[in-house]
Each structure stands twice: as C-alpha cells, then as structure tokens.
Amino acid sequence: MPITALSLPRSVSLSETVPPLVDPSRRSFCTQGCLSAAAVALASLSSGCGGGGSDSTSPGGSGSTGSPLASATGNVSGRVVSVPIDGSPLTTVGGAAVVRTSLGNYLLARTGQDTFTALTAVCTHEANQVSNFTGSQFACTFHGSLYTTSGSVARGPATRPLTSYPTTFAGNTVTFSV
Ligand code: FES
C-alpha cells in the first residue's frame, strides 16, 4: 500500500527527532577544559621565559645592590661641574651621591676629609645608569655590577672601570671637569 501524507502520524519537527550533535554538558566541559589548558600553558611559558615583571631591572648576580643614591646639586659651567656638598650625604666621610647635570649623571663619593672621587654614572656593562650605593660600593641594579668608589669593578658582569675625573675641594664645594 503506497504511503501518503495522510498515513504519517503528524508533522514532526526536526528538534524532536534529531538529537543534538554534541551534548551541551559535554560542550561546556570541553570549553572549560580548553580554557584551563591554555591558562596552564601560558603560565608555564611565562615562568619558562623568566617573565617576571621585575626581571628587567633585577640584578642577575647575587648579593645586595644597596639603596638608591641621594642626589646632590651640580652647577655646570662649560665642562666644569661644581657640587656644593652642604645638605648632602657628602658632608660625611664615606658618603656618596649622584649628581644629575645637563652634561650627564655623575657619582661622587667622599673618601676622606678632603678627598672625593667623581665617576661617570654610566655602567660599562650595557650603559645603564648606576644609581645605587651599598654603603661602600656603587651598584648597577640592571644586572648587579658593583664598582668601588674609585670606579674599579668589584663584581661583574661589567669588566671595565667607570670613567673617573680628578676633583678639587674648596669652600665646601667639589669641582671636577668632564
Ligand atoms: S648595565 Fe648591566 S650591570 Fe649595569
């Protein structure tokens, strides 16, 4: 007997007869699983690359890199820098300061009652600014190089000394030419 439209029980919608291709609970599980896996992968990549936010400015070596140097005022005339020491750490033997001038930044240390050293603040490793003092040595916080107050390398990765400039001291003012 031929099948006619009249012999079908009733109209049936597709949603009733075709099951969903993917179970909603299973789809949700896969989505969550993929997101979790991606998060884990990103986290491991980040740590694998040394991706900590402070790494670019953290010392690569071990040991202290001291504290940021106090600033002293530098007056520039031609290539001569004059630094009045009143009110700066340079009033005491063993003190040190950074002098920021239009000619560049310089490190000053008081090595005796009437003696000072003046050094460039440009690290000889990768030319970043040496900005810290340990109490006896200048420190570059970028990769941990340490310099004595006379500019010699006390700890690498720097291998060359800081450029130094002869100083004179009179009237509570340190003067040096660069
Ligand atoms: S720039 Fe690398 S230690 Fe100073």
TrEMBL record:
The GO molecular function terms of this record are: 2 iron, 2 sulfur cluster binding; metal ion binding
- Which Gene3D superfamilies does the record associate with it? Rieske [2Fe-2S] iron-sulphur domain
State the protein's name.
Answer: Cytochrome b6-f complex iron-sulfur subunit
Matches recorded under Pfam families: Rieske
Kindly give the InterPro entries that the UniProt entry links to this protein.
Rieske_2Fe-2S, Rieske_2Fe-2S_sf
Q: Supply the PROSITE patterns for this chain.
A: RIESKE
Tell me which residues make up the Rieske domain: 82-176
Enumerate the UniProt keywords alphabetically: 2Fe-2S, Iron, Iron-sulfur, Metal-binding
Q: Where is this region: Disordered?
A: 52-73
Q: Where is the composition biased (Gly residues)?
A: 52-64
Q: Which SUPFAM superfamilies match?
A: ISP domain
Signal sequence, renumbered to the chain:
none
